[in-house]
Design brief:
255 residues, alpha/beta, Rossmann fold, OB fold (Dihydrolipoamide Acetyltransferase, E2P), 2 domains, five-stranded parallel β-sheet, five-stranded antiparallel β-sheet, 7 helices
């Protein structure tokens, strides 16, 4: 599942700053779109389901400001999460704006912590949409332990060796990496994941995947492709019915 983010910003430098924050911190979760004016925003909204809107308040040389555009887009996507940004620091303006339109947060561009605050608020917006709180999954054995943010976990599989698991995840370089866990069976991991309420699903005898990492599904070969196609895993026959139901609800895939 890719979350669609629309940036409405007519200042090229400010737009680049927002894009940089998104790409450096959330690239694996987001599909990023940019509009420099209301016309481009409305055109995009005709064919893109907008999940998160990051909009400047003032749009120069435009008959609509950011608030006007947001109101119109909310008519189309009422569950859209809204983040406003502006140079205006007046607290009363923010209060009046909140009475006029419901939004998640307001970030001041001239704030010394602007980039950190925007990054945190975007992360919060993603959590709200995914209903997926930031937390670690712990893989532990008598020999070693490994902690991974649930949102960065791609998949877990058994190897040819008994009680050796391979954990696939996204590292700090935004690339996939692996970690071996010794002395743990897949069944014990499934029990652990159930206790930790991790939203992972089993797709065959030796594989458990994070459905949010599914990039696409080949219906002919009945394979799942994970993390932008770096993995492709055949779906086990006995798991197809359960997988179809869970994927339809979790990643909105149309089977």
């Amino acid at each position: 599942m890719r979350i669609s983010v629309l940036i409405i910003e007519d200042n090229a430098k400010d737009c680049e700053r927002v894009q940089k924050i998104l790409e450096e911190n959330f690239e694996n979760f987001l599909q990023i779109y940019v509009a420099t004016n209301s016309h481009e925003a409305f055109d995009l909204a005709e064919y893109v389901k907008i999940d998160i809107l990051i909009s400047d308040i003032h749009l120069q040389e435009d008959k609509y400001n950011g608030v006007d555009v947001t109101k119109k887009l909310l008519d189309e996507y009422p569950h859209m999460t809204v983040i406003f940004q502006s140079d205006i620091v007046d607290p009363q303006f923010r209060l009046d704006l909140h009475h006029e339109i419901e939004y998640l947060t307001y970030v001041t561009k001239i704030d010394v912590d602007y980039e950190l605050k925007l990054k945190n608020k975007i992360g919060r917006a993603i959590d709200i949409i995914l209903d997926f709180p930031k937390r670690n999954i712990v893989f532990s054995s008598s020999k070693n332990s490994f902690f991974v943010d649930e949102r960065n976990l791609i998949a877990v599989r058994t190897t040819d060796h008994r009680n050796v698991l391979q954990v696939y995840y996204i590292d700090r370089r935004k690339e996939y990496a692996t970690e071996s866990i010794y002395g743990v069976s897949l069944k014990s991991v499934l029990d652990l994941l159930s206790v930790q309420r991790a939203k992972l699903i089993r797709v065959q005898q030796s594989w458990v995947i994070n459905p949010l990492m599914v990039s696409h599904i080949d219906h002919t070969s009945e394979e799942l492709y994970l993390f932008d196609g770096d993995f492709h895993i055949p779906i086990g026959r006995e798991y197809k019915k359960c997988i179809r139901a869970m994927l339809k609800s979790l990643i909105q895939e149309d089977w």
